[in-house]
């Protein structure tokens, strides 16, 4: 008699229990599966880049790229100040994963490539690429951002720009110390902050003395923060005879000798650990003047405007990445008899996060569109970009830490454990509101722009007026904003800029997002009927509509 075999039992991994109710790996996934991002890409004039952004999104969510991101943060950069014979080398060694991330980012045009493209929308395409590639690692976004941002500042010295711009805008990543003009591609850093003052760069003590050669100076002093010290060239502020000035400082001089760039140590940072941030010292260091002597802040502000946009972009990408992780977890985890995604209160939390994420993404790409059109000579967009980038930098980066903490909590205890990746994203978030103008400095910059720079208030209110009449709560908020603006005080700057940011985000969603999303945003951010934590959306909000739009694969 033939006996029927017993049904195969799943092989137990543990003698004591089976592993159940843990989500499957999210990776591989498509980081470009983001409806709000794709719609904004088209709206802001870079629909032609969709295929590339989708390809990069798949790459970002691949097991390989996610592994690079993890490894680059586990194996942190190491400073070698001296060689075995006692000679100074001032080199930073990186794990191969860092170089893979950098090579991909540069090749995909996430550094300075858009400046070499005539095509309208090039800067939008780069920002969208950054939004999806940012699902990997934030640290390497620092040198790519500074390289992007250095170009418009360098243009203040056309003869230097002629030599270095083609190399900065190259899509070739060529690490290592060599004569810059002999490399296929260059990276740029920035040295402003000193021990006695970061926001207040007028207190810089590094000096710059002209040499006999026109435009060539010798720098002496230090910087307290200079990230990505392995870059090829740096824009550095120093006090010249006519006042604070901007200089281009190469690490290797044209004759192949080392410029003095002593890296004293690397910072032991809360996050951003794949990236190196250093304290360099200059002593007889050669620097080439960029822009007029004494106008260093005006020159380097061109760079800061671009890195500020990237701070908004990096915060938005952290939001989206952690939302995707949270959505994945709660779809596969059950508690108290049902999947977490089906629990009404969890749906409220996720929908609230989804709203915040969409508002951040939409604003990021609107700012990128303004930058793109400003570069091509649109004065109205230049004025809008000036005010709205500072507003967005203040608010979106300020929301990052609270957002990533809440998304992390959706994973329960798993979210607090390093291997989930969530602690890394959480630690990254506060940095974006510190560098390139900390919260207060940004808020005060908005006040300064409004009072001193013609056309900025008109540009902002012109943008808000495009949504007039579509939502009563938004209309009321704009009226409130106008009256607060009239009595704008320094101590009330954060309050004012927050209201500006919320009305701007609401107006964009009212104009471009599905009505349920716009309604939920206005109800919870402008309507006066909301709590302070995420997950406090009012009952009338259509949670299903918000979640179905935000989460890949539905909810
Ligand atoms: C990881 C990391 C990397 C960095 N990389 C670089 C780099 O590559 N190059 C570079 O040049 N710098 C870099 N920085 C420095 C960074 O830009 C500064 O730390 C930042 O601008 C703040 O300056 P500060 O640290 O001197 O703080 P401060 O200027 O002393 O500010 C301290 C606090 O006071 C607030 N504040 C300042 N002025 C006012 C005011 N008028 N009213 C009210 N409040 C005010 C600020 O908002 C802040 O909260 C880096 C910083 C970090 C953390």
Topology of this protein?
Layout: H1 35-43, H2 50-60, H3 63-74, E1 78-82, E2 88-93, H4 96-107, H5 122-133, H6 141-154, H7 158-168, E3 188-191, E4 207-210, E5 216-222, E6 226-227, E7 233-240, E8 243-250, E9 262-266, E10 277-290, H8 296-332, E11 334-335, E12 338-339, H9 344-375, H10 379-410, H11 422-428, H12 439-452, H13 456-465, H14 472-486, H15 493-512, H16 515-526, H17 543-550
Parallel strand pairs: 3-7
Antiparallel strand pairs: 1-2, 4-5, 5-10, 6-10, 7-8, 8-10, 9-10, 11-12
The chain binds flavin-adenine dinucleotide.
Flavin-adenine dinucleotide binds at residues 189-193, 197-200, 225-227, 269, 272, 277, 431, 434-435, 438-441, 444.
What does this structure look like?
The structure is a single chain. This protein is α+β, with helices and mostly antiparallel strands. The protein folds into two domains: 35-294, Butyryl-CoA Dehydrogenase, subunit A, domain 2 (Beta Barrel), CATH 2.40.110; 298-550, Butyryl-CoA Dehydrogenase, subunit A, domain 3 (Up-down Bundle), CATH 1.20.140. The chain has 17 helices and twelve strands. The strands form three sheets. Strands 3, 4, 5, 6, 7, 8, 9 and 10 form an eight-stranded mixed beta sheet that branches. Helix 10 (379-410) packs across helix 15 (493-512). Flavin-adenine dinucleotide is lined by residues 189-193, 197-200, 225-227, 269, 272, 277, 431, 434-435, 438-441, 444. Residues 190-283 form the Acyl-CoA oxidase/dehydrogenase middle domain. Belongs to the acyl-CoA dehydrogenase family. Residues 294-450 form the Acyl-CoA dehydrogenase/oxidase C-terminal domain. Residues 21-175 form the Adaptive response protein AidB N-terminal domain.
